[in-house]
Each structure stands twice: as structure tokens, then as C-alpha cells.
Amino acid sequence: xxxxxxxxxxxGASLAARAMAAxxxxxxxxxxxxxxxxxxxxxxxxLMLAGAGTGKTKALTTRIVHLLNxxxxxxxxILAVTFTNKAAREMKHRVGRMMGEAVEGMPWLGTFHSICVxxxxxxxxxxxxxxxxxxxxxxxxxxxxxxLIRAANIDDKxxxxxxxxxxxxxxxxxxxxxxxxxxSEAHAYDGKGPALxxxxxxxxxxxxxxxxxxxxMHMVTIFQAHDDVLKQYQRWFCYILVDEYQDTNVAQYLxxxxxxxxxxxxxxxxxxxxxxxxxxxAEVGNILRFEKDFPGAHVVRLEQNYRSTAHILAAASGxxxxxxxxxxxxxxTDAEGGEKVRLIGHWDGETEARWIGEEIEAMQYGxxxxxxxxxxxxAILVRASHQMRAFEDRFLSIGLPYRVIGGPRFYExxxxxxxxxxxxxxxxxxxxxxxxxxxxxxxxxLGDKAQQKIQMAARENGVPLxxxxxxxxxxxxxxxxxxxxxxxxxxxxxRWAMMTRARVIDAGEGEVIDDGGIEVGxxxxxxxxxxxxxxxxxxxxxxxxxxxxxxAQGRLENLKELVKALEQFENLSGFLEHVxxxxxxxxxxxxxxxxxxxxxxxKGLEFPVVFLPGWEDxxxxxxxSMDESGQxxxxxxxRLAYVGITRAEEVCTISFAGNRQVxxxxxxxxxxxxxxxLPEAHVDVLTAPGLYGGNYGAAGMSAGIETRAAExxxxxxxxxxxxxxxxxxxxxxxPKTNVxxxxxxxxxxxxxxxxxxxxxxxxxxGVDGDKLEIEFEKAGLKKVIAKFITGADDIPF
DNA sequence: TACGAGTTCTCTATG
DNA sequence: AGAACTCGTA
Length: 797
Hints:
By secondary structure, the chain is an alpha/beta fold. It folds into five domains: about 20-130 and about 215-305, 3-Layer(aba) Sandwich (Rossmann fold), CATH 3.40.50.300; about 135-205, Arc Repressor Mutant, subunit A, CATH 1.10.10.160; about 340-400 and about 590-685, 3-Layer(aba) Sandwich (Rossmann fold), CATH 3.40.50; about 410-500 and about 525-580, PCRA, domain 4; about 750-790, no CATH class. Helix content is about 45%, strand content about 15%. Strands 9, 10, 11, 12, 13, 14, 15 and 16 form an eight-stranded mixed β-sheet that branches. A six-stranded parallel β-sheet has the order 3-2-6-7-1-8, with helices on both faces. It starts with 7 loop residues before the first helix and ends in a 6-residue tail after the last strand. Residues about 1-15, about 505-525, about 690-745 and about 790-795 have low confidence and may be disordered. It binds a DNA duplex through helix 7, helix 11, helix 21, helix 28 and helix 29.
């Protein structure tokens, strides 16, 4: 940081002198005119509308470097927020590289959440918290809510805790505290939402805990109620940069506006066409309204794309053009040539996975006259994570290496969470949620009854569960095996806690500590060894060693990895802090693999070869999205399609299947409406190579493009008959009495005798959205789209 | 209290 | 299809 001490010289420098200095800055020459404009407009509000692949991160990082180089700010005076840890890391890395030194001094470059944790630790007392509060993850949150719901005598069957969690999350995204909850929300969660919200917040306070939503909300509350605190930070953060501004929710928006309220030196970067997080509270309105919020804002559009071929860009533009209310941007490139976007229909999800697997292998080895690509140059982007399984199954069986990005994350795994609960309990013995998690894991004969007694003892004495358990034992409220085991657990926990403390006090002394648990002469126990000791002595490791289920071995390996991860940290609490915010699962693995991930996880990434499977109505666009948010939902889905296509640099392949298993039930699918929106001039329709011996691919395809009635020809192939036979068996062997609410859809009711073009006559046995479940007289149980059904009686004879 | 069979619910996505 | 959860039995 000392290299910036003479930076004051710039403060008084004339514009001309500054311009001179700027000319000497080589990094500016690497920018195109628009990027350069965005970088050089240092003061006042700036909105950078950056389309996909237009060098947004480059502009953003260069801007930071420019701020530093011109002496406008020191590294610790720049507030730069991103949404993901990955983006933050990337930016840190790039700034560091450009500055030619490690930029240790950018402490305020991070995610909204990590920055808010830092701030909240400093001002925790202003919202009645202690600065060492714990951060609950979704799992803890749900368990806590479940307790409250049950305590309030609500049937959590009818009103699941997850739903309440969703409602509360929604409120927190809007920065609505229990006190300023709008009246319009009174009905939420059967009218009990607001009261439960209040109870939840009180309970969090008692536990000295916050959830993710609180991090932002508490800071907004603090800034609003304590002007002195706000002013302090307004002065300190003299320049603010925001990445992915289109993804900000109301709380984040308020937070930013408060912080930028003085100098207004705020630069927001975003792309309204890539706003795909409306479901978690993001407000596209924030970016659309920027110029109103910050009058005199400088708006820069980055439209030159450096990533994709013209065909890919044209396809993406064609799709996104269907959306209304865009800020308006058109990507262009001076790159020429390239392959058209490829489109192919398949029989079912399995066939689709198989075809993509073969295609990947062909591209890998460059056979069929195609260029050869490494596996890590290829990615499969799906709408919903359950689509991944078909690919994993297939790739496992053909031995194609793949990597799932953003799947079940390391720190969310059962064994990791259990182990972490032990660590948490040692660091903060009053962590009741952690205690509940591990009292009986491994089995200690402490079931519901015993746990209830512990709860009771704790509540009566107004102490945390661990103390409550002690009291219970002293009062002989528990006897036998349970009592012995509980005593041992408590003793262990205390001993381990003492070992951490001994470590802290005597750190660096190299002295031998005898705190009762360790033999004299043993070397000092560091947190890594301690973690291992805890896992071993608690019997947790043993539990998995004795477990003969197939995944037990993997779990043990994960535990080893967890202990190894501790090496990067000074102590246990530092580690816990990290984990609560960084849920990344970036096991850096250099080997070449195909990436499989959701479209959401793919935002910000790019690959030479991209596969976009599952483009079927209901799956993509997702039915749920459209049901819940109507036109808005559909537009968000369309943006998702846009994001997907624009991930591709050279080859983009879109596919759909005519049949797919959903919830274990076969369903016929229609090609996505987005397929109709692809401009034909930029699309190459592929024919499936002789699978099932038919040319259904071609037939289905053209039908897909022109009429979307792909069903017709598909159903005459041998594969279809085989499928039908399987369906028959399925329904015979396991008669499914899937009795769904006897709700009428627009025209048909349960029990109606109906007619379907292809399947013939049948009776409606279930209704699921716009789909009807029909027991066909010939074809068996099928789910079909309601509009393809006519009442049997409607047919004129 | 532990375990296994049966039943119901899920499948958007993030820190 | 698989996970999560419930309930009855040993």
C-alpha cells in the first residue's frame, strides 16, 4: 500500500496532466472505445450495460486499476461487490495481475454477503447481536422454523417449514423487518406468517445467529437508523463498483444507494438481458431505473462481442427479441464464418444423453471431419439439476470423464455438516442447533424422549442445551446407557473446547500443554489435529467405518478432505466463518472433463462447445416459472435461453426429447416454444443418425420448427412401441392410484371419457397443471397436454 | 430406542 | 426415480 502514499500528488493535478498520465497507461490501449469510456468516467454514477461476452470483467477490473493508478482511491477505499465468490476471486486475481503485485489491500472486494458479514461484526450490537454471531445455513434455518411451527401447533404437513422459509426469505430480500412488514403480507403462510417471522427473528437473536437474508437486512436497518455509521462508510468507500447489477434485490439496492448517497461515485455493471434471478428477489427494475435513481448518470453500452460466432449471436438475438421492456442492446462481432446453431430432436431423454455422449466423443477425437476439442472445452447446460442424471448415467457407462459444477456442494453433505456441528459446538458451546444435530449422531441411545428432557431442562433454567444436559444429568433426570453416553459426550466437548483455548493462549510458545486430556510430552495440539481427535473420539469416524452402505467410503474420504481443508486456516473459528459464506465446491482438478451444470451456474462462463438439452415446453421454459410468474416468468426463462446460447463460442447444439420421465412417470413433451424463436437462417437441423431405424428426427424436427406438433411421427417408431409395452407393465405391476385433487381443468374433469389423436380413448384419472393423466384403453397410463384432448362426447359421430 | 417397510413429496437456481 | 418422512414392530 506504501506505493500509493504519494498518490495525493494526483489530487491537485490538472486535467491535462491527468490526461498525460492516462496516455502513459498501457492498459487503456487494450480497450475498445466503449470500454475505455466506461473506464475513464471515474467520477459520478456510471451504468455499464455490458452484453454477454463484451469484455465486462476486463472493463471492470481495468477501472479498478485506473482508480488506483490515478490516485483517486487507495485499495481499501474501493468497495467492489459481486454475487458469487467465483466472480470476486476472478476480479481479485485480474486486478492483482494488472497491478503486477498481489493486491492484498483490496479488503472490500467481495460478495454482498461477505462484505456485510464484515460490517455486521463491527456493528452487531446495533441490532442486538454479539459480534461473534453464527451464520445459519438453509438447513439450520429450516430446522429452526420447524420447531417454531410445531410449537405454535401448526400442522407442518399442510404448511411446510420450507414454505415459511421461502416467505421469510422473500421479505428479507425486500428488507422488510417484522416491524415494517406491509399489511399486504398479513395473509402469508395461512395468516400466521408475520407472527412466526417475529418469533423467528427473536429466536435468532437469542441464539446470537443470523441467516443469509439477515446479513443484508441488518446492515440496511443499521444504516437507516444510525446516520453516523452510514456517514463513516460513505466517506470511507469513495468509489463503489457493482457487478451483475441486474441481479440485485431490494435490500442490496437500498444498501448500495445508502452507501453511494454522498459522492455518488458508483459504477454498476449489468445486462438486463441476463437477469435470471427474479425468483430469488432480484429486481430488473433496479437496472432499468438507474438513470432515475442517479440523475446525470453516464450510460455506456458494450455491444461488441468477442466470444461467439455470428450465427450464435444471431440465434441468441432472435430469442431475446421476444422480450418486452428491454434497455435495448444488439451484440455484434467482426468475426466471420462458423457453424450454425445445431438443432436436433430425440426420442427420449436417454437417447438424447446417448447422442450427446457420442457427439462429445466424436468432437474429442476430431472424427467425422470435425475439429477436435478437449473435453474441458465442452459443456452441457441444463435447465434443472435433475436433468443431469441422464448424462451422468450415460457418461459413467461409457467412461466419459465429466464434472458436475454446482451440484450438491461439499459443505452441504451430511457428513460434513455433522462434523462441522462438532466443530461449532467446541467453538461456541451455546450453539443449540449444532448440539441437536450431533447429540445422537453417532447413536448414543439418546432418542426423542431424552432429547425432550434436555430441551426441558434447558428451557426451565434459561440456558443453552449443553448446560441443560448437564443439569439434567446432575438431577438424575436421565439414567442408564443414555446417561453414561451423554456424560461422555459432554465431557469430551468440554475437553476439546479447552484444547482450542489452550492453543489460543499458548500459541507460538511451543510449550507442552497438559489440560487433562493430553499426555504430558505430547506435542501441542493444533486445530487440525484437534479436528481429527474430535472426529475419532466422538465415534463419528467409526460410525462410517462400520457403515456398509456403498457411499460410506466416499463419506470417509470427504471427512479427510475436510480435515485437510483446515490447513489453510489459523484456527477453527476462522474456518467456520469461511465455510458459512463460501459454499463453493471447487476441488481444483486439472484433468480434462466435460462440464455439466445448470444454466444458472453457467452465467459468466464460456465454452467453445455447448450442448443445450431438454428444450421442451414445461421443462424449458419451466412450467413452474410460468405458473408462478406468468409473462414475467416466461421472459425470465427466455433470458435464460439467451444466457445459454451466448455461453457458446464456436458450436452450440440445442436438443429436445419427445418423451421424458418426470417424477418417475413418462410424459410426452413438446419442443420448447423458444425453438420456434430461433431464426431459421442461423440454424442447422440435424437428423438423428438411424437410431431406432427411423427418420423421426427429421420429421419431428421440421414439425418442431413449423408447427410444434412433433408428436405425430415420433409415435410410430419401434422404440415407441417398446416404451408403451414398458408403460403397460409398469402400470400393471404397480397399479398407481395417484389420485390427484378432483379439480377440473378448463374443459375436462376426473373420470371423463376423452379422445386423443394418437392414443385413442381413455379416462382421466388425474390432473396436473395443464397436463392430464389419462388411462388410455389401448396405450395405458399417459400424461398428455390438455389441449390435445377432446371430450369423447364432443366428437360428432 | 432402533430399524425397516411403507408413504408422500419432489424437480428450478444462490450466498 | 430418489429422498425425506411416518409409523409399527422388535
